[in-house]
Amino acid sequence: MQIQPYLFFEGRCEEALEFYKKTLGAKVDVVMHYKDAPKDAQPTAEQCGGMAPPLDKVMHAAFRVGETQVLASDGMASGKADFKGFGLSVSVADKAEAERTFKALGDGGQVTMPMSETFFANAFGMVTDRFGITWMVIAPKPM
């Protein structure tokens, strides 16, 4: 069994993929747009609660950060991404990498807990990126 996060960017998926490539070194495995689906498999407004997704938006994408695969989509491209009740944690090798990653993810976002040393980490901080995803960046102390 495997659990994979599936993030719905509501119209900003391609922008998010480029951002994570730049900030986290993400590798994009696949990007499928709604228009790429076979004609008989494209979602209709009736199937989607009265609103058909724009054909130029991302139906499904997969990208990797390190060994973790993350799935993503534009969803219905409503423009109202609402990432609440969870965060993503990224563990890095050392304090310098933690600070670099934290700063990069925070570009256009908001720091919710400044980077600092804690009893469990050489560096730990929380930031919400420009897409509304909360990230916990940690350079753990050896336990």
Characteristics of this structure?
four-stranded mixed beta sheet; Signal recognition particle alu RNA binding heterodimer, srp9/1; VOC family protein; 35% strand; Glyas_Bleomycin-R_OHBP_Dase; PhnB-like; alpha/beta; 2,3-Dihydroxybiphenyl 1,2-Dioxygenase, domain 1
Description:
- The structure is a single chain.
- The chain is an alpha/beta fold.
- The protein has 2 domains: 1-80, 2,3-Dihydroxybiphenyl 1,2-Dioxygenase, domain 1, CATH 3.10.180; 83-143, Signal recognition particle alu RNA binding heterodimer, srp9/1.
- The chain has helices spanning 13-24, 95-106; strands at residues 6-8, 27-33, 58-65, 68-73, 88-91, 110-116, 121-128, 134-140.
- A 4-stranded mixed sheet has the order 1-4-3-2, with helices on one face. The protein has a 4-stranded mixed sheet with strand order 5-8-7-6, with helices on one face.
- Strand 7 (121-128) and strand 8 (134-140) form a beta hairpin.
- The protein is elongated and about 55 Å long.
- The two termini are 27 Å apart.
- The model has no long low-confidence stretch (mean pLDDT 93).
